[in-house]
Specification:
The complex is a heterotrimer of chains A (94), B (345) and C (283).
Chain A lengths: L6 E8 L6 E7 L3 H12 L5 E8 L39
Antiparallel strand pairs in A: 1-2, 1-3
Chain B lengths: L9 H16 L12 H20 L1 H5 L8 H26 L5 H9 L17 H18 L8 H29 L3 H20 L11 H6 L7 H19 L9 E3 L4 E3 L5 H11 L3 H14 L1 H23 L20
Antiparallel strand pairs in B: 1-2
Helix pairs in contact in B: 2-4, 4-7, 6-7, 6-8, 6-10
Chain C lengths: L2 H7 L33 H24 L7 H28 L6 H6 L19 H25 L3 H30 L2 H14 L3 H6 L7 H18 L23 H14 L6
Chain lengths: 94, 345, 283
């Protein structure tokens, strides 16, 4: 029997957060243990209110290299990027 | 994660390399699934693993004082700090694993002595003042080393460092606060603090690594923006930062050559004993054997526990599978039924 | 600062340093609570109650600290420290309360560092050496199940507002400790032949010390109810873990009266060594 536990990815949504955010990974024998560990490891300073864990092996990801249509460079659509909009420095919190 | 490999001919290889160079040049980040040169990957694995090992081995010198902390407040602070170090080790192992290595394998390399950790943790902690001095000097040096790593070119490493640095600054402050308190206490306490400073000052300076001319990998790491400043530059910053703190504390730093140089606008200081650093790095420090042996024992003593948890998980999965096949409701799986609104605790 | 850094920093919402190093819950549970002993509460009895509960937590936390750098996996390192920190936090508030109400003016540190083992009032279960991980989980399960049952009742109805507030905070922590231990007892019981054997041995080893927990239930609480609640938890966990719940034979004496095993004195000797070596020191 293998003594090494599989890898899980951890997503946390903070108190004022809108979305779950990937915060890292950890090892656990099963989903339940992964949740317990995630709570201890990634929210021990009370950061999160909601945690998702998912086995890393269950994640399918796109490949962000140039040939991948998911990542077609969109440099021509600069208006999509907030940095396109020049805002004076004295406007707070933008 | 499933890695899709790109079959790349020499031409495609050049294009990938050019793309990579562009990302580095524009101060953007390399992410785990991006193409990267093998040597970049190898350097990162080595550096992040060493960093992770250092956090885990670094629990030992201070952890030994949790049960003996002389006040309950100090006990809580130290307990939380050493716990943070375990957490930092885990964040860093997680970052290393995004590069395709396995934590179990890295752990094996550590306990077999094939991978290194910071040589500072091979020095013994002889009194409770050491807890304060480690926080002040060792964590202070670590902060100097680590803050620039928050801008490291490898995304997962940089992000782990953001969080780690935030916690490290508390670590340094608790150490300094402990020393301030002890310096206001009895003469015996003040002597303890000075003794600890005497023992830890030079090893702290050595934490920045060998001098630049003797550090062959530094330039390449800086070219890749894995590292942002040279060893000597970081060492100088640390000295400049620490001298006024030592004055405020009322301790003497054990270096007769240490003085302000108005022309440079920086402090001049003596040369650490690089032969000692070599001895400690190559395994002959005062505590090398003890540190690795403790880690090895914990890992081996825990094997039956890890094996049992894996066996239970396998049985549970089989039971749930059998229940599903029997057309029954698989029922309570212990983790809730859907992502939406699933709250833990 | 990059956008993706923001995402991480925003998770650390509280910017207040005081949350650091006080366990896993950072709000002050005693904020705004009146510390005057209310009319009709016997201060001697209240002090004795807080002392017993405080010593239980302090000694249990000390044993958990001994796991540090020895846990079976790094994730458990973090988890065991969380539990140890929670209990240490409880101990500090309870010992502080003792000094407030018994008229001695002793601080938490006076009580922790300047008493001998015969003055300690913890139950003997918590002072036993850690043994293997199975033993530690068996002990944590029974200890946290009993303490949770007791704290729920204190939080709901104890006349002292300070003890009520301490218990209310503790209930959340202990529910987690109990769950953590229960999950491990199930995993080890159901895991491999070796882990099953060790887990059963762990339960059998703590058996003689369990009855003392029920004799330590605070006066005014229904001992039978607490016993049944803890028994039900144990039965449920043991069934899932394919383990047998041992009989809890009654062992003479009680830590609440200062009766201890020979294991306590060395634990205290180590804990108090630095504080006693430097009398008058400030920390």
């Amino acid at each position: 029997m293998n003594q090494d536990w599989p890898l899980f990815e951890v997503f946390v949504r903070g108190k004022r957060g809108l979305n779950h955010v990937h915060v890292g990974s950890l090892h656990a024998a099963d989903e339940r243990m992964a949740l317990t560990h995630a709570r201890d490891l990634y929210t021990r300073r009370n950061e999160g209110v909601s945690i998702w864990v998912v086995r890393s092996s269950d994640i399918t990801a796109s490949t962000p290299d140039e040939k991948d249509p998911f990542f077609e460079p969109s440099g021509d659509k600069v208006y999509r990027h907030p940095t396109f909009y020049d805002i004076p420095d004295d406007v707070p919190h933008i | 994660m499933t890695q899709t490999t790109t079959a790349a001919g020499p031409e495609a290889q050049d294009r990938l390399q050019a793309h990579f160079d562009g990302v580095i040049a524009h101060d953007r980040r390399i992410e785990p699934r991006d193409w990267m040169p093998d040597a970049y990957r190898g350097t990162l694995v080595r550096q992040i693993a060493q960093h992770a090992h250092s956090e885990i081995i670094g629990m030992q010198p201070e952890g030994a004082w949790i049960t003996r902390a002389p006040s309950l407040r100090r006990k809580a602070i130290l307990f939380a700090k050493v716990q943070d170090e375990a957490g930092h080790g885990l964040y860093l192992y997680a970052a290393a694993e995004t590069l395709g290595v396995d934590r179990a394998d890295l752990t094996r390399r550590l306990i077999e002595g094939r991978q290194k950790y910071s040589s500072i943790f091979n020095y013994p902690t002889l009194s409770f003042a050491d807890v304060g001095v480690i926080g002040w000097l060792v964590d202070g040096a670590a902060i100097c080393n680590q803050v620039p790593l928050c801008r490291s070119s490898f995304g997962p490493y940089a992000r782990a460092m953001v969080r780690i640095c935030k916690e490290e600054s508390f670590h340094q402050r608790q150490g300094y606060e402990l020393l301030l308190t002890m310096m206001r206490g009895t003469a015996a306490q003040r002597a303890m603090v000075q003794d600890a400073v005497d023992r830890w000052w030079w090893p702290s300076l050595m934490m920045f690594g060998p001098p630049d001319e003797a550090s062959p990998n530094s330039a390449r790491s800086m070219g890749w923006k894995i590292k942002r400043h040279s060893n000597d530059e970081l060492r100088q910053r640390f000295v400049d930062m620490t001298v006024p703190q030592a004055e405020k504390l009322g301790v003497t730093l054990p270096d007769p050559e240490l003085r302000w140089n108005p022309e440079r606008g920086r402090h001049d200081f003596g040369t650490p004993d690089w032969d000692e650093l070599k001895r400690v790095i190559s395994g002959n420090g005062p505590c090398n054997e003890e540190r690795v042996e403790r880690r090895r024992r914990a890992h081996e003593d825990g094997a039956w526990v890890r094996r049992a948890a894996a066996a239970h998980a396998k049985k549970q999965a089989a039971r749930q599978e059998a229940a599903r096949e029997a057309g029954q409701d698989a029922g309570h799986t212990g983790t809730g039924s859907g992502a939406d609104g699933r709250e833990t605790r | 600062m990059r956008e993706d850094d923001h995402v991480y920093l925003s998770l650390a919402e509280e910017q207040d340093d005081s949350r650091w190093a006080f366990g896993t819950g950072f709000e002050d549970p005693l904020h705004g609570v009146d510390t005057t002993v209310p009319d009709g509460v016997d201060p001697v009895e209240l002090a004795a109650l807080c002392l017993g509960l405080g010593d239980d937590a302090l000694v249990a936390s000390q044993r958990l600290a001994e796991w540090c750098t020895r846990a079976p996996e790094l994730e458990e390192e973090v988890a065991l420290a969380n539990i140890g920190l929670d209990l240490l936090g409880q101990a500090r508030m309870l010992l502080t309360r003792v000094g407030q109400v018994d008229g001695s003016g002793r601080s938490e540190d006076d009580l922790a560092y300047l008493r001998e083992s015969e003055d300690y009032r913890n139950v003997r279960l918590v002072e036993l050496p850690n043994g293997d991980f199975a033993f530690s989980m068996a002990r944590l399960l029974v200890f946290s199940a009993q303490r949770l049952a007791v704290f729920e009742r204190l939080a709901a109805g104890h006349p002292d507002p300070v003890l009520r507030a301490v218990a209310a905070k503790g209930v959340k922590e202990l529910a987690y400790h109990r769950q953590y231990a229960a999950e491990w007892v199930v995993r080890l019981g159901d895991g491999t032949d070796e882990s099953h054997r060790r887990m059963q041995e762990g339960l059998d080893t703590i058996a003689p010390y369990v009855d003392e927990l029920f004799r330590a239930v605070p006066s005014g609480q229904d001992v039978r109810e607490v016993r049944d609640e803890v028994g039900a938890v144990l039965a449920q966990v043991a069934a899932a873990a394919t383990l047998a719940v041992p009989d809890f034979e009654v062992m003479a004496g009680s830590g609440r009266d200062g009766v201890h095993t020979p294991c306590l004195a060395p634990l205290l000797f180590e804990m108090q060594s630095v504080a006693r070596a430097l009398p008058g020191g400030s920390w």
